[in-house]
Amino acid sequence: MAKRGAFIVIEGLDRSGKTTQTGRLLEQLEQRDRPVQLFKFPDRTTAIGKMIDGYLRSQSDLDDRAIHLLFSANRWEIASTITNLLASGTTVLADRYAFSGIAFSASKVTAGLTYEWCRSPEIGLPAPDLTVFLDIDPEKARERGGYGDERYEKEEVQKRVRGVFDRIGKEMGSRAGESESGGRWVTVDAGHEKDIVQGIIWRLVEPLMNGVENPLMRLWEEHLPRPTSS
Q1: Which ranges carry the Thymidylate kinase-like domain (predicted)?
Q2: 29: which of 20, 36, 133, 188 fits an S-S bond (Cβ 3.0–4.6 Å)?
């Protein structure tokens, strides 16, 4: 079987250094002449993304269910592009993905959104080969510059979001078992110095740089409808 590109996702709480580490990882991959494509979710440049951007900046209000589905649609409009890039041998790097969508929506205490409902529209999206979750105590994150600029950057919100991420990580881990691919989830302490965090991430990513032999999996594919026999 021909090798395909690796799909790597960097997730994390707000102000965990996620975007910084994603940028550093992108530079490392490019320096090694690896074909790589970066996606940032939400993609705020699309029509859907512009609606999301206004919401995140508290410039507009949307129903909690509507905004969750918009976040999901923003990922689905890129899904086929990700699949094709991976098939061509390109490494795909994502700054946030479906897991953020689930964590932030399911953490809303007044919305009445269940975890299962929030997960449902994400079922079937391309599954990462590796998800690195940058974990940081919300109290420590608050000490970092710019905290509180956007809607979800409140300490009590981040604590709830952290709890949902923990559930997702355990769920993904139970799916992946001891496998190195198909949903591997690794939590990294983002409270360390930037260079230390960067080194930890690279040690996780480097084994995937020669490509992946396993076929691309789909998120929570066990919940996809099964074809019926005629």
Answers
A1: 10-170
A2: 36
